[in-house]
Amino acid sequence: MFGDFTAVNAITFQVKKGEIFGFLGANGAGKTTAMKMLIGISNPTSGKANVAGFNVFTNAEDIKKNIGYMSQKFALYDDLTVKENINFFGGIYGLSRKRITEKSSALIEELGLEKTANKLVGSLPLGWKQKLSFSVSLLHDPKIVFLDEPTGGVDPITRRQFWEMIYKAANQGTTVFVTTHYMDEAEYCDRVSIMVNGTIEALDTPKKLKERFKTDTMNDVFLKLARG
Amino acid sequence: MKRFIGFIKKEYYHIFRDRRSLFILFGMPIAQIMLFGFAITNEINNVDIAILDHSKDADTKEIIHKISASKYFSINQLIEKESDIETIFKKGKVKAVLSFENDFSKNLNKEHKTTIQIITDATDPNTANTISNYVNAILTQYQKELNKDVTIAYQIIPQTRMVYNPELKSVYMFVPGVMTIILMLVSAMMTSISITREKELGTMEVLLVSPLKPFQVIVGKVFPYIFLSIINAVIIVMLSIFIFKMPIQGSLFLLALESILFITSALALGILISTISATQQTAMMISLMGLMLPVILLSGFIFPISSMPLPLQLISNIIPAKWFIIIIKGIMLKGVGFQFIWKETLILVGMTVFFIGLSVKKYKIRLE
Q1: Relative to the CA of A157, which of A175, B106, B226, B263 has its CA 20 to 30 Å away?
Q2: What is the ipTM of this complex?
Protein backbone atom coordinates (compact mmCIF):
# COMPACT_ATOMS: atom_id res chain seq x y z
CA MET A 1 0.00 0.00 0.00
CA PHE A 2 1.30 3.44 -0.91
CA GLY A 3 -1.04 5.87 0.82
CA ASP A 4 -4.54 5.29 -0.42
CA PHE A 5 -3.34 3.78 -3.61
CA THR A 6 -3.28 0.02 -3.84
CA ALA A 7 -0.42 -0.81 -6.15
CA VAL A 8 -0.94 -4.54 -6.04
CA ASN A 9 -4.36 -5.87 -5.20
CA ALA A 10 -4.88 -9.47 -4.13
CA ILE A 11 -2.92 -11.30 -6.77
CA THR A 12 -2.72 -15.07 -6.71
CA PHE A 13 -0.35 -17.27 -8.65
CA GLN A 14 1.98 -20.24 -8.35
CA VAL A 15 5.29 -20.81 -10.08
CA LYS A 16 6.75 -24.27 -10.57
CA LYS A 17 10.36 -25.22 -9.98
CA GLY A 18 12.53 -24.70 -13.06
CA GLU A 19 9.85 -22.72 -14.79
CA ILE A 20 10.38 -19.46 -16.67
CA PHE A 21 7.57 -17.29 -15.44
CA GLY A 22 6.91 -14.07 -17.32
CA PHE A 23 5.42 -11.27 -15.29
CA LEU A 24 3.97 -8.79 -17.74
CA GLY A 25 2.22 -5.49 -17.46
CA ALA A 26 2.31 -1.92 -18.65
CA ASN A 27 4.43 0.61 -16.83
CA GLY A 28 2.81 1.27 -13.46
CA ALA A 29 0.72 -1.89 -13.54
CA GLY A 30 2.35 -3.08 -10.31
CA LYS A 31 4.93 -5.58 -11.56
CA THR A 32 7.88 -4.12 -9.75
CA THR A 33 5.92 -3.60 -6.56
CA ALA A 34 4.71 -7.19 -6.58
CA MET A 35 8.24 -8.38 -7.18
CA LYS A 36 9.58 -6.24 -4.35
CA MET A 37 7.09 -7.84 -2.01
CA LEU A 38 8.30 -11.29 -3.01
CA ILE A 39 11.97 -10.46 -2.52
CA GLY A 40 11.34 -8.82 0.82
CA ILE A 41 12.09 -5.16 0.25
CA SER A 42 8.42 -4.15 0.35
CA ASN A 43 5.90 -5.46 2.84
CA PRO A 44 2.51 -6.61 1.62
CA THR A 45 -0.34 -5.33 3.82
CA SER A 46 -2.11 -8.67 3.78
CA GLY A 47 -2.14 -12.04 2.11
CA LYS A 48 -0.08 -15.18 2.01
CA ALA A 49 3.04 -15.77 0.00
CA ASN A 50 5.76 -18.39 -0.07
CA VAL A 51 9.00 -18.00 -1.96
CA ALA A 52 11.31 -20.99 -2.37
CA GLY A 53 9.19 -22.67 0.29
CA PHE A 54 9.55 -19.89 2.86
CA ASN A 55 6.91 -17.53 4.15
CA VAL A 56 7.38 -13.91 3.04
CA PHE A 57 6.16 -12.57 6.38
CA THR A 58 7.99 -14.82 8.79
CA ASN A 59 11.02 -16.22 6.98
CA ALA A 60 12.26 -13.28 4.94
CA GLU A 61 15.86 -14.03 5.92
CA ASP A 62 15.67 -17.60 4.55
CA ILE A 63 14.17 -16.29 1.35
CA LYS A 64 17.04 -13.88 0.87
CA LYS A 65 19.57 -16.70 0.98
CA ASN A 66 17.71 -18.66 -1.66
CA ILE A 67 16.92 -16.04 -4.24
CA GLY A 68 18.88 -14.08 -6.76
CA TYR A 69 17.88 -10.63 -7.94
CA MET A 70 18.77 -8.48 -10.87
CA SER A 71 17.32 -5.01 -10.66
CA GLN A 72 15.99 -2.75 -13.38
CA LYS A 73 18.95 -0.47 -13.02
CA PHE A 74 22.25 -2.02 -13.85
CA ALA A 75 23.44 -2.93 -10.40
CA LEU A 76 27.08 -3.90 -10.42
CA TYR A 77 29.75 -1.47 -9.30
CA ASP A 78 31.24 0.44 -12.21
CA ASP A 79 34.34 1.34 -10.28
CA LEU A 80 35.16 -2.26 -9.41
CA THR A 81 36.67 -4.73 -11.86
CA VAL A 82 34.76 -7.75 -13.11
CA LYS A 83 36.59 -9.98 -10.64
CA GLU A 84 36.16 -7.60 -7.73
CA ASN A 85 32.43 -7.45 -8.38
CA ILE A 86 32.20 -11.23 -8.42
CA ASN A 87 34.26 -11.48 -5.24
CA PHE A 88 32.14 -8.89 -3.49
CA PHE A 89 28.76 -10.37 -4.34
CA GLY A 90 30.00 -13.89 -3.72
CA GLY A 91 31.25 -12.65 -0.37
CA ILE A 92 28.01 -11.08 0.81
CA TYR A 93 26.20 -14.32 0.01
CA GLY A 94 28.66 -16.07 2.26
CA LEU A 95 30.39 -18.18 -0.38
CA SER A 96 33.77 -19.58 0.60
CA ARG A 97 36.89 -18.13 -0.96
CA LYS A 98 37.53 -21.36 -2.82
CA ARG A 99 33.99 -21.52 -4.14
CA ILE A 100 34.17 -17.90 -5.29
CA THR A 101 37.40 -18.54 -7.18
CA GLU A 102 35.90 -21.58 -8.91
CA LYS A 103 32.68 -19.80 -9.75
CA SER A 104 34.50 -16.73 -10.86
CA SER A 105 36.75 -18.45 -13.37
CA ALA A 106 33.88 -20.57 -14.71
CA LEU A 107 31.75 -17.49 -15.14
CA ILE A 108 34.47 -15.43 -16.79
CA GLU A 109 35.18 -18.24 -19.21
CA GLU A 110 31.53 -18.75 -20.03
CA LEU A 111 31.01 -15.08 -20.79
CA GLY A 112 34.29 -14.84 -22.69
CA LEU A 113 35.51 -12.09 -20.39
CA GLU A 114 39.05 -13.45 -19.88
CA LYS A 115 40.68 -10.35 -21.32
CA THR A 116 38.52 -7.93 -19.39
CA ALA A 117 38.40 -9.71 -16.04
CA ASN A 118 40.66 -7.13 -14.47
CA LYS A 119 39.10 -4.13 -16.12
CA LEU A 120 36.59 -1.86 -14.45
CA VAL A 121 33.03 -2.91 -15.14
CA GLY A 122 32.23 0.68 -16.12
CA SER A 123 34.29 0.22 -19.29
CA LEU A 124 32.23 -2.74 -20.55
CA PRO A 125 29.44 -2.35 -23.12
CA LEU A 126 25.92 -2.44 -21.67
CA GLY A 127 25.08 -5.86 -23.12
CA TRP A 128 28.06 -7.45 -21.38
CA LYS A 129 27.28 -5.70 -18.16
CA GLN A 130 23.77 -7.09 -18.24
CA LYS A 131 24.97 -10.63 -18.88
CA LEU A 132 27.53 -10.29 -16.15
CA SER A 133 24.91 -8.93 -13.80
CA PHE A 134 22.68 -11.94 -14.49
CA SER A 135 25.54 -14.36 -13.89
CA VAL A 136 26.36 -12.61 -10.64
CA SER A 137 22.76 -12.97 -9.47
CA LEU A 138 23.17 -16.74 -10.00
CA LEU A 139 26.49 -16.90 -8.19
CA HIS A 140 25.11 -18.50 -5.02
CA ASP A 141 22.96 -21.04 -6.93
CA PRO A 142 19.63 -19.57 -5.87
CA LYS A 143 16.48 -21.67 -6.16
CA ILE A 144 14.71 -18.82 -7.83
CA VAL A 145 16.02 -15.75 -9.60
CA PHE A 146 14.05 -12.53 -10.01
CA LEU A 147 14.83 -10.45 -13.07
CA ASP A 148 13.31 -6.99 -13.22
CA GLU A 149 13.22 -5.90 -16.87
CA PRO A 150 16.65 -7.35 -17.48
CA THR A 151 16.91 -6.55 -21.15
CA GLY A 152 16.00 -2.86 -21.14
CA GLY A 153 18.05 -0.90 -23.64
CA VAL A 154 19.91 -3.91 -25.00
CA ASP A 155 20.28 -4.74 -28.71
CA PRO A 156 18.32 -7.71 -30.16
CA ILE A 157 21.37 -9.95 -30.53
CA THR A 158 22.37 -9.51 -26.91
CA ARG A 159 18.76 -10.03 -25.84
CA ARG A 160 18.79 -13.29 -27.71
CA GLN A 161 22.00 -14.35 -25.95
CA PHE A 162 20.54 -13.23 -22.67
CA TRP A 163 17.54 -15.47 -23.13
CA GLU A 164 19.82 -18.36 -23.94
CA MET A 165 21.40 -17.82 -20.56
CA ILE A 166 17.97 -17.76 -18.95
CA TYR A 167 17.09 -21.07 -20.60
CA LYS A 168 20.32 -22.58 -19.44
CA ALA A 169 19.65 -21.54 -15.84
CA ALA A 170 16.12 -22.92 -16.03
CA ASN A 171 17.36 -26.22 -17.43
CA GLN A 172 19.65 -26.50 -14.44
CA GLY A 173 16.61 -26.27 -12.19
CA THR A 174 16.58 -22.59 -11.30
CA THR A 175 13.18 -21.00 -11.37
CA VAL A 176 13.18 -17.75 -13.34
CA PHE A 177 10.76 -14.99 -12.51
CA VAL A 178 11.09 -12.27 -15.11
CA THR A 179 9.28 -9.00 -15.70
CA THR A 180 9.41 -7.46 -19.12
CA HIS A 181 7.44 -5.31 -21.45
CA TYR A 182 8.94 -6.72 -24.60
CA MET A 183 6.13 -8.90 -25.86
CA ASP A 184 8.39 -11.00 -28.07
CA GLU A 185 10.18 -12.04 -24.90
CA ALA A 186 6.88 -13.13 -23.42
CA GLU A 187 6.81 -15.82 -26.11
CA TYR A 188 9.98 -17.32 -24.63
CA CYS A 189 8.38 -17.85 -21.22
CA ASP A 190 6.82 -21.12 -20.08
CA ARG A 191 3.89 -19.24 -18.61
CA VAL A 192 3.05 -15.57 -18.41
CA SER A 193 0.82 -13.50 -16.20
CA ILE A 194 -0.43 -10.14 -17.36
CA MET A 195 -1.07 -7.46 -14.77
CA VAL A 196 -3.43 -4.57 -15.34
CA ASN A 197 -3.97 -1.94 -12.65
CA GLY A 198 -2.62 -4.04 -9.84
CA THR A 199 -4.48 -7.27 -10.59
CA ILE A 200 -3.59 -10.30 -12.70
CA GLU A 201 -5.91 -10.35 -15.70
CA ALA A 202 -4.53 -13.44 -17.41
CA LEU A 203 -2.22 -16.28 -16.52
CA ASP A 204 -1.36 -19.15 -18.83
CA THR A 205 1.12 -20.41 -21.38
CA PRO A 206 1.70 -18.01 -24.28
CA LYS A 207 0.13 -20.54 -26.65
CA LYS A 208 -3.10 -20.89 -24.69
CA LEU A 209 -3.37 -17.14 -24.18
CA LYS A 210 -3.08 -16.55 -27.92
CA GLU A 211 -5.79 -19.16 -28.54
CA ARG A 212 -8.05 -17.63 -25.95
CA PHE A 213 -7.73 -14.14 -27.40
CA LYS A 214 -7.68 -15.44 -30.96
CA THR A 215 -4.51 -13.66 -32.05
CA ASP A 216 -1.12 -14.65 -33.40
CA THR A 217 1.14 -12.62 -31.13
CA MET A 218 1.48 -11.95 -27.43
CA ASN A 219 1.55 -8.29 -28.36
CA ASP A 220 -2.09 -8.43 -29.42
CA VAL A 221 -3.03 -10.40 -26.33
CA PHE A 222 -1.48 -7.71 -24.24
CA LEU A 223 -3.12 -4.86 -26.14
CA LYS A 224 -6.55 -6.46 -25.86
CA LEU A 225 -6.13 -6.93 -22.13
CA ALA A 226 -4.61 -3.58 -21.37
CA ARG A 227 -7.29 -1.69 -23.27
CA GLY A 228 -9.99 -3.70 -21.53
CA MET B 1 32.95 -11.07 9.77
CA LYS B 2 34.25 -12.21 6.39
CA ARG B 3 31.31 -10.52 4.74
CA PHE B 4 32.11 -7.38 6.63
CA ILE B 5 35.72 -7.39 5.45
CA GLY B 6 34.56 -7.87 1.87
CA PHE B 7 32.26 -4.92 2.30
CA ILE B 8 35.03 -2.71 3.69
CA LYS B 9 37.26 -3.72 0.80
CA LYS B 10 34.62 -2.63 -1.65
CA GLU B 11 34.26 0.74 0.09
CA TYR B 12 38.01 1.10 -0.02
CA TYR B 13 37.95 0.64 -3.80
CA HIS B 14 35.17 3.21 -4.11
CA ILE B 15 37.05 5.78 -2.09
CA PHE B 16 40.50 5.28 -3.50
CA ARG B 17 39.41 5.04 -7.12
CA ASP B 18 37.47 8.26 -7.00
CA ARG B 19 39.68 11.32 -7.21
CA ARG B 20 36.94 13.61 -6.03
CA SER B 21 36.40 11.77 -2.80
CA LEU B 22 40.13 11.37 -2.28
CA PHE B 23 40.55 15.09 -2.66
CA ILE B 24 37.79 15.88 -0.19
CA LEU B 25 39.13 13.30 2.24
CA PHE B 26 42.79 14.17 2.26
CA GLY B 27 43.30 17.37 0.27
CA MET B 28 40.69 19.40 2.10
CA PRO B 29 41.90 18.96 5.66
CA ILE B 30 45.43 19.93 4.78
CA ALA B 31 44.38 22.76 2.49
CA GLN B 32 41.96 24.13 5.06
CA ILE B 33 44.30 24.05 7.98
CA MET B 34 47.03 25.70 5.90
CA LEU B 35 44.62 28.34 4.63
CA PHE B 36 43.25 29.16 8.02
CA GLY B 37 46.62 28.91 9.65
CA PHE B 38 48.63 31.04 7.27
CA ALA B 39 46.40 33.08 5.05
CA ILE B 40 43.39 33.94 7.12
CA THR B 41 44.62 35.76 10.14
CA ASN B 42 43.48 38.46 12.50
CA GLU B 43 46.98 39.57 13.23
CA ILE B 44 48.59 42.39 11.34
CA ASN B 45 52.09 42.19 10.01
CA ASN B 46 54.02 44.67 7.91
CA VAL B 47 51.06 46.85 7.18
CA ASP B 48 51.95 49.64 4.79
CA ILE B 49 51.48 53.07 6.27
CA ALA B 50 52.30 56.59 5.11
CA ILE B 51 53.59 59.51 7.15
CA LEU B 52 52.63 63.13 6.78
CA ASP B 53 55.08 64.99 8.94
CA HIS B 54 54.41 68.74 9.10
CA SER B 55 56.93 69.23 11.83
CA LYS B 56 60.00 67.08 11.05
CA ASP B 57 61.65 67.47 14.45
CA ALA B 58 63.41 65.24 16.95
CA ASP B 59 60.24 63.82 18.52
CA THR B 60 58.48 62.99 15.26
CA LYS B 61 61.66 61.35 13.98
CA GLU B 62 61.87 59.25 17.10
CA ILE B 63 58.22 58.18 16.88
CA ILE B 64 58.53 57.37 13.17
CA HIS B 65 61.61 55.36 13.95
CA LYS B 66 59.80 53.37 16.63
CA ILE B 67 56.91 52.69 14.33
CA SER B 68 59.03 51.53 11.45
CA ALA B 69 61.07 49.40 13.83
CA SER B 70 58.03 47.44 14.93
CA LYS B 71 57.19 44.34 12.91
CA TYR B 72 53.61 45.46 12.50
CA PHE B 73 54.24 48.39 10.19
CA SER B 74 56.39 49.28 7.29
CA ILE B 75 56.54 52.83 6.13
CA ASN B 76 55.59 52.88 2.51
CA GLN B 77 55.72 56.56 1.75
CA LEU B 78 56.38 59.98 3.18
CA ILE B 79 53.84 62.44 1.89
CA GLU B 80 53.96 66.21 1.91
CA LYS B 81 50.46 67.57 1.78
CA GLU B 82 47.01 66.89 3.21
CA SER B 83 45.47 66.30 -0.23
CA ASP B 84 47.76 63.33 -0.86
CA ILE B 85 46.03 61.33 1.86
CA GLU B 86 42.97 60.54 -0.19
CA THR B 87 44.96 59.72 -3.31
CA ILE B 88 47.12 57.34 -1.41
CA PHE B 89 44.13 55.52 0.15
CA LYS B 90 42.49 55.22 -3.23
CA LYS B 91 45.56 53.47 -4.55
CA GLY B 92 44.82 50.89 -1.90
CA LYS B 93 48.19 49.72 -0.70
CA VAL B 94 48.54 52.04 2.27
CA LYS B 95 46.15 51.22 5.09
CA ALA B 96 46.88 54.11 7.43
CA VAL B 97 48.35 57.58 7.45
CA LEU B 98 49.95 59.23 10.49
CA SER B 99 49.83 62.97 10.39
CA PHE B 100 51.96 64.99 12.82
CA GLU B 101 50.83 68.56 13.45
CA ASN B 102 53.02 71.63 12.92
CA ASP B 103 55.51 72.31 15.70
CA PHE B 104 55.02 68.89 17.22
CA SER B 105 58.05 69.03 19.54
CA LYS B 106 57.54 72.66 20.42
CA ASN B 107 53.98 72.10 21.51
CA LEU B 108 54.98 69.00 23.37
CA ASN B 109 57.70 70.76 25.31
CA LYS B 110 56.04 74.13 25.86
CA GLU B 111 52.38 73.29 26.26
CA HIS B 112 52.93 69.68 27.27
CA LYS B 113 50.33 68.75 24.71
CA THR B 114 50.44 67.93 21.06
CA THR B 115 48.38 65.92 18.57
CA ILE B 116 48.95 63.24 16.04
CA GLN B 117 46.24 62.14 13.67
CA ILE B 118 45.76 58.48 12.82
CA ILE B 119 43.75 58.05 9.64
CA THR B 120 42.90 54.50 8.71
CA ASP B 121 41.28 52.88 5.72
CA ALA B 122 38.21 51.34 7.30
CA THR B 123 37.00 49.41 4.29
CA ASP B 124 38.32 46.58 6.42
CA PRO B 125 37.10 47.59 9.88
CA ASN B 126 38.97 44.91 11.79
CA THR B 127 42.32 45.80 10.35
CA ALA B 128 41.64 49.53 10.80
CA ASN B 129 40.85 48.95 14.44
CA THR B 130 43.88 46.83 15.04
CA ILE B 131 46.18 49.32 13.33
CA SER B 132 44.89 52.18 15.45
CA ASN B 133 45.32 50.11 18.62
CA TYR B 134 48.87 49.18 17.75
CA VAL B 135 49.83 52.79 16.92
CA ASN B 136 48.28 53.90 20.20
CA ALA B 137 50.30 51.34 22.06
CA ILE B 138 53.52 52.58 20.50
CA LEU B 139 52.61 56.20 21.33
CA THR B 140 51.73 55.34 24.92
CA GLN B 141 55.08 53.64 25.25
CA TYR B 142 56.86 56.72 23.93
CA GLN B 143 54.87 58.94 26.29
CA LYS B 144 55.93 56.78 29.22
CA GLU B 145 59.56 57.19 28.25
CA LEU B 146 59.11 60.96 28.20
CA ASN B 147 57.49 60.92 31.62
CA LYS B 148 60.11 58.64 33.05
CA ASP B 149 61.23 61.09 35.72
CA VAL B 150 57.84 62.52 36.49
CA THR B 151 55.47 61.03 38.98
CA ILE B 152 51.85 61.40 38.15
CA ALA B 153 49.61 61.85 41.15
CA TYR B 154 46.96 59.30 40.35
CA GLN B 155 47.80 56.33 38.27
CA ILE B 156 45.79 53.37 37.03
CA ILE B 157 48.07 50.92 35.40
CA PRO B 158 46.27 48.14 33.50
CA GLN B 159 48.18 44.91 33.53
CA THR B 160 46.83 42.81 30.72
CA ARG B 161 47.59 39.16 30.52
CA MET B 162 46.35 37.11 27.60
CA VAL B 163 46.09 33.62 28.98
CA TYR B 164 46.00 30.38 26.96
CA ASN B 165 47.21 32.17 23.84
CA PRO B 166 49.64 34.88 24.95
CA GLU B 167 50.88 35.61 21.46
CA LEU B 168 47.29 35.90 20.22
CA LYS B 169 47.96 33.53 17.37
CA SER B 170 44.82 33.14 15.33
CA VAL B 171 45.76 29.60 14.39
CA TYR B 172 44.90 28.64 17.99
CA MET B 173 41.38 29.66 17.29
CA PHE B 174 41.20 28.12 13.84
CA VAL B 175 42.53 24.66 14.57
CA PRO B 176 39.57 23.55 16.69
CA GLY B 177 37.18 25.10 14.18
CA VAL B 178 38.83 23.54 11.16
CA MET B 179 38.93 20.18 12.88
CA THR B 180 35.20 20.45 13.53
CA ILE B 181 34.48 21.36 9.93
CA ILE B 182 36.60 18.58 8.54
CA LEU B 183 35.14 15.92 10.79
CA MET B 184 31.66 17.10 9.89
CA LEU B 185 32.53 17.16 6.20
CA VAL B 186 34.13 13.75 6.10
CA SER B 187 31.67 12.03 8.38
CA ALA B 188 28.36 13.53 7.40
CA MET B 189 28.78 14.61 3.82
CA MET B 190 30.91 11.73 2.60
CA THR B 191 28.73 9.05 4.19
CA SER B 192 25.52 10.61 2.98
CA ILE B 193 26.93 10.85 -0.53
CA SER B 194 28.24 7.30 -0.47
CA ILE B 195 24.95 5.86 0.77
CA THR B 196 22.84 7.84 -1.69
CA ARG B 197 25.18 6.77 -4.45
CA GLU B 198 24.20 3.16 -3.84
CA LYS B 199 20.56 4.22 -3.90
CA GLU B 200 21.03 6.15 -7.11
CA LEU B 201 22.85 3.30 -8.82
CA GLY B 202 20.32 0.72 -7.71
CA THR B 203 22.95 -1.32 -5.89
CA MET B 204 21.32 -0.54 -2.54
CA GLU B 205 18.34 -2.62 -3.64
CA VAL B 206 20.60 -5.49 -4.54
CA LEU B 207 22.33 -5.24 -1.15
CA LEU B 208 19.01 -5.24 0.67
CA VAL B 209 17.84 -8.31 -1.24
CA SER B 210 21.03 -10.09 -0.21
CA PRO B 211 21.26 -11.88 3.15
CA LEU B 212 23.03 -8.82 4.58
CA LYS B 213 20.84 -7.10 7.13
CA PRO B 214 20.07 -3.41 6.53
CA PHE B 215 21.94 -2.68 9.72
CA GLN B 216 25.04 -4.45 8.40
CA VAL B 217 24.85 -2.54 5.14
CA ILE B 218 24.84 0.78 6.97
CA VAL B 219 27.62 -0.19 9.37
CA GLY B 220 29.65 -1.39 6.41
CA LYS B 221 29.14 1.89 4.61
CA VAL B 222 29.88 3.99 7.67
CA PHE B 223 32.82 2.14 9.13
CA PRO B 224 35.47 3.26 6.61
CA TYR B 225 34.50 6.85 7.23
CA ILE B 226 34.91 6.50 10.98
CA PHE B 227 38.41 5.32 10.28
CA LEU B 228 39.14 8.08 7.76
CA SER B 229 37.72 10.73 10.09
CA ILE B 230 40.02 9.58 12.86
CA ILE B 231 42.99 9.72 10.49
CA ASN B 232 41.97 13.23 9.54
CA ALA B 233 41.70 14.31 13.15
CA VAL B 234 45.19 12.95 13.75
CA ILE B 235 46.56 14.77 10.68
CA ILE B 236 45.06 18.04 11.85
CA VAL B 237 46.42 17.71 15.36
CA MET B 238 49.86 16.80 14.00
CA LEU B 239 49.87 19.77 11.63
CA SER B 240 48.89 22.13 14.37
CA ILE B 241 51.55 20.79 16.72
CA PHE B 242 54.41 20.58 14.26
CA ILE B 243 53.72 23.34 11.77
CA PHE B 244 51.92 25.91 13.87
CA LYS B 245 53.65 25.02 17.12
CA MET B 246 50.35 24.91 18.89
CA PRO B 247 50.72 22.89 22.05
CA ILE B 248 47.90 20.54 23.02
CA GLN B 249 47.48 21.34 26.70
CA GLY B 250 45.01 18.66 27.67
CA SER B 251 44.84 14.91 27.46
CA LEU B 252 45.13 13.48 23.96
CA PHE B 253 43.10 10.49 25.08
CA LEU B 254 40.18 12.69 26.14
CA LEU B 255 40.52 14.60 22.88
CA ALA B 256 40.33 11.33 20.95
CA LEU B 257 37.26 10.14 22.86
CA GLU B 258 35.41 13.41 22.38
CA SER B 259 36.33 13.41 18.70
CA ILE B 260 34.93 9.92 18.26
CA LEU B 261 31.73 11.06 19.94
CA PHE B 262 31.45 13.98 17.54
CA ILE B 263 32.27 11.77 14.56
CA THR B 264 29.48 9.41 15.62
CA SER B 265 26.96 12.23 15.78
CA ALA B 266 28.09 13.48 12.38
CA LEU B 267 27.79 9.97 10.90
CA ALA B 268 24.27 9.66 12.26
CA LEU B 269 23.47 12.99 10.60
CA GLY B 270 24.98 11.68 7.39
CA ILE B 271 22.78 8.58 7.48
CA LEU B 272 19.79 10.78 8.23
CA ILE B 273 20.57 12.95 5.21
CA SER B 274 20.95 9.88 3.02
CA THR B 275 17.49 8.65 4.00
CA ILE B 276 15.86 11.88 2.86
CA SER B 277 17.79 12.44 -0.34
CA ALA B 278 17.43 10.41 -3.50
CA THR B 279 20.50 11.59 -5.37
CA GLN B 280 24.10 12.34 -4.53
CA GLN B 281 23.57 15.93 -5.59
CA THR B 282 20.77 16.41 -3.09
CA ALA B 283 22.81 14.77 -0.36
CA MET B 284 25.69 17.08 -1.08
CA MET B 285 23.52 20.20 -1.14
CA ILE B 286 21.78 19.28 2.09
CA SER B 287 25.11 18.56 3.74
CA LEU B 288 26.63 21.81 2.57
CA MET B 289 23.69 24.08 3.29
CA GLY B 290 22.28 22.26 6.25
CA LEU B 291 25.49 21.31 8.01
CA MET B 292 28.50 23.22 6.75
CA LEU B 293 27.02 26.70 6.83
CA PRO B 294 25.72 26.45 10.39
CA VAL B 295 29.01 24.88 11.45
CA ILE B 296 30.97 27.78 9.99
CA LEU B 297 28.62 30.61 10.89
CA LEU B 298 26.77 29.62 14.04
CA SER B 299 29.13 27.36 15.95
CA GLY B 300 31.23 30.15 17.38
CA PHE B 301 34.11 29.05 15.20
CA ILE B 302 34.55 32.46 13.54
CA PHE B 303 31.86 34.69 14.99
CA PRO B 304 31.47 34.74 18.75
CA ILE B 305 28.07 33.41 19.77
CA SER B 306 27.73 35.93 22.60
CA SER B 307 27.58 38.81 20.14
CA MET B 308 24.88 37.22 17.98
CA PRO B 309 21.26 38.34 18.15
CA LEU B 310 19.25 36.24 20.61
CA PRO B 311 17.36 34.09 18.04
CA LEU B 312 20.65 33.04 16.47
CA GLN B 313 22.12 32.34 19.90
CA LEU B 314 19.20 30.02 20.58
CA ILE B 315 19.61 28.28 17.23
CA SER B 316 23.32 27.79 17.86
CA ASN B 317 22.40 25.51 20.77
CA ILE B 318 21.06 22.80 18.48
CA ILE B 319 24.25 22.68 16.45
CA PRO B 320 26.44 19.82 17.66
CA ALA B 321 29.52 21.61 16.35
CA LYS B 322 29.05 24.43 18.86
CA TRP B 323 29.41 22.02 21.77
CA PHE B 324 32.26 20.17 20.17
CA ILE B 325 34.18 23.41 19.60
CA ILE B 326 33.73 24.38 23.26
CA ILE B 327 34.98 20.94 24.27
CA ILE B 328 38.05 20.79 22.06
CA LYS B 329 39.01 24.43 22.67
CA GLY B 330 38.93 23.55 26.34
CA ILE B 331 41.07 20.48 25.91
CA MET B 332 43.50 21.87 23.34
CA LEU B 333 44.04 25.39 24.63
CA LYS B 334 43.14 25.34 28.31
CA GLY B 335 44.07 21.78 29.07
CA VAL B 336 40.84 21.17 30.97
CA GLY B 337 39.88 17.74 32.21
CA PHE B 338 36.55 15.98 31.88
CA GLN B 339 35.09 17.69 34.96
CA PHE B 340 34.95 20.99 33.07
CA ILE B 341 33.34 19.70 29.91
CA TRP B 342 30.99 16.97 31.08
CA LYS B 343 27.96 19.14 30.48
CA GLU B 344 28.85 19.80 26.86
CA THR B 345 29.76 16.14 26.43
CA LEU B 346 26.41 15.10 27.82
CA ILE B 347 24.59 17.39 25.40
CA LEU B 348 26.59 15.93 22.54
CA VAL B 349 25.82 12.38 23.69
CA GLY B 350 22.13 13.28 23.86
CA MET B 351 22.20 14.71 20.35
CA THR B 352 24.06 11.69 19.01
CA VAL B 353 21.56 9.27 20.51
CA PHE B 354 18.72 11.36 19.10
CA PHE B 355 20.21 11.44 15.60
CA ILE B 356 20.96 7.72 15.62
CA GLY B 357 17.43 6.94 16.78
CA LEU B 358 15.93 9.21 14.17
CA SER B 359 18.04 7.85 11.34
CA VAL B 360 17.30 4.24 12.29
CA LYS B 361 13.61 5.06 12.30
CA LYS B 362 13.76 6.96 9.02
CA TYR B 363 15.82 4.21 7.47
CA LYS B 364 13.26 1.58 8.45
CA ILE B 365 10.42 3.61 7.02
CA ARG B 366 12.34 3.93 3.79
CA LEU B 367 12.69 0.19 3.51
CA GLU B 368 9.00 -0.43 3.52
Answers
A1: A175
A2: 0.87
